[in-house]
Amino acid sequence: MDADDSRAPKGSLRKFLEHLSGAGKAIGVLTSGGDAQGMNAAVRAVVRMGIYVGAKVYFIYEGYQGMVDGGSNIAEADWESVSSILQVGGTIIGSARCQAFRTREGRLKAACNLLQRGITNLCVIGGDGSLTGANLFRKEWSGLLEELARNGQIDKEAVQKYAYLNVVGMVGSIDNDFCGTDMTIGTDSALHRIIEVVDAIMTTAQSHQRTFVLEVMGRHCGYLALVSALACGADWVFLPESPPEEGWEEQMCVKLSENRARKKRLNIIIVAEGAIDTQNKPITSEKIKELVVTQLGYDTRVTILGHVQRGGTPSAFDRILASRMGVEAVIALLEATPDTPACVVSLNGNHAVRLPLMECVQMTQDVQKAMDERRFQDAVRLRGRSFAGNLNTYKRLAIKLPDDQIPKTNCNVAVINVGAPAAGMNAAVRSAVRVGIADGHRMLAIYDGFDGFAKGQIKEIGWTDVGGWTGQGGSILGTKRVLPGKYLEEIATQMRTHSINALLIIGGFEAYLGLLELSAAREKHEEFCVPMVMVPATVSNNVPGSDFSIGADTALNTITDLLISDLDVASVLLVTCDRIKQSASGTKRRVFIIETMGGYCGYLANMGGLAAGADAAYIFEEPFDIRDLQSNVEHLTEKMKTTIQRGLVLRNESCSENYTTDFIYQLYSEEGKGVFDCRKNVLGHMQQGGAPSPFDRNFGTKISARAMEWITAKLKEARGRGKKFTTDDSICVLGISKRNVIFQPVAELKKQTDFEHRIPKEQWWLKLRPLMKILAKYKASYDVSDSGQLEHVQPWSV
Question: Among residues 5, 35, 175, 547, which one is catalytic?
Fold first, then answer.
């Protein structure tokens, strides 16, 4: 890692510093409304990015109430004041509801308090109510200044100097109820809390054959309930946006009894707290319990999760999301002009974008209006493509039509896992099997990868066979790194014997190589002239054609979770980043050096470093030498002179042949002697294990369902014509690229691949690398060419 980025293009560095000069500017940051995990990461990013570009940054404690009260509630922040808050839930600067700010008199006081400190840039982290209030404040600003001048509280020079107020919002809400962004800060962490409870409840429910009704937050938005239902395979879900049809009581009881008849020992029903029927009457968890007990006689319990969903440590996703949004918010404030409307920083795919604040607020209010007027289809549409897609996928996977109502295609579709195990693989297999059966196919499971394929380890797999798979780690089908090349004859024979008409491969780089080998063998083996699609699943996130892979999010959470408490080299127990940092905060001057997996791909090390607040992350994609190591040691030595007396360094396992983890540990230990001591840990295969995160469960479920839809469409093309699939577009990798889910022919991806190092030639996350450096107080060149474009919100782009 280059401490001062001295080898970066000087032109880009100068452009960055000139473009984002915050000299003479003051930024106020506040959190308002309900708290959400990840708010502290956003505050940290705003403070450090603001200071980095030369601005003054002020904490506004207790939200708008602190702005109105002034005094010590508005205090200048420094670099150290946001140290060690990344892993802390809630908000360190407090949040409060403020009636006074709703009045002009209150806003007049707030304006006066801001002017005393020269603050004309506001970063507001909250929900739609908080952001609406900020926009009104901005609109009234010039009038408030004139009134303060008339009252003699400020002079005319101040009116001219502070003539306009810039406002940028970030949405902090666990409900994910704000239109214009794929995810709000705190939502992913809330899903972690819910799924942790659901996983725990499922074990006791199975023991006693119980039905559990779980009530989750979401007074006006069913996102948490819907995604939780997808992630755990719930039997039924109740949402405010999509009430059940008339007669739902009988339909639900039939569904529960059918599942019990299939020897399922438990039922899970998830209810959003704002669930309603088609007449807008509340559907409560107690009402559902009474119905199940009365109609079916099942032992039924209610669990209301409540504020547990707001608590705990933020997930890796929320830390990274909030950090990216915080940096983008500062850039937006510094680029703002008097004519720039208030904007909100949002997430679209894997891009941070800016949207007009009031457009987003208006659409959010339109959703509630549609529900109030019982226009529920409009409400789902306004929620956006992601919400509608989740709802459609849940319905397809949860409800099986009777066999005689499913038109048969007489096609056999096989599913195989290839490569190292990755959390979320089983969710992907479950989704593929159920969507395939719903589409009329006969589904076949191939066990133990291509090795098992060659040996004929192939069995039909049914709807109930994959019940309960979403929450299980590893690969139930079994997976191996063996490639098909030396077994082509045998695999072709098995394809012919089992009349396999299409193949879905779920796996990592070996799966990608295997797909290439099958593609090349089509000329010799016509059995391979069938639709084939690969879904990326690897903790390394190194498959060309997709920005994300199933399993990578779980691995990132494992890394950040392990970096919390004391890491003793002699200890048998491996714990991760936040725990390490907590231990270090109670241990004077200690640096932890952690090795992550990933092969030559530095995704885990880099993104883990951003999520955990690392001081350095060594990766293969960015070569480093002894000078860089020495510079990092000197940086940490200076850091130890402050109140921050802990350090964290991540190293990708294959970043350098010579600068090994042991070498770096010994170098840091020697050079830091008398200043800090060192500890090291190699996380190893722990990153592949454990239960999949909510993100990986849902990503695996949705992307695999999309793959099966593609297979069904291809087979429909060939129906009755005996068509052979020989074109490049019939053998693809399915992935997320920028903002879209796309199928890319594997033949086209070859030129985008570094086969020697098993990584894509271009990797999107490298653009985020400077953020980690900046937030760790290094000079870095940050490309802001994608910033500055204010987009408009569309219902189907949310």
Answer: 175
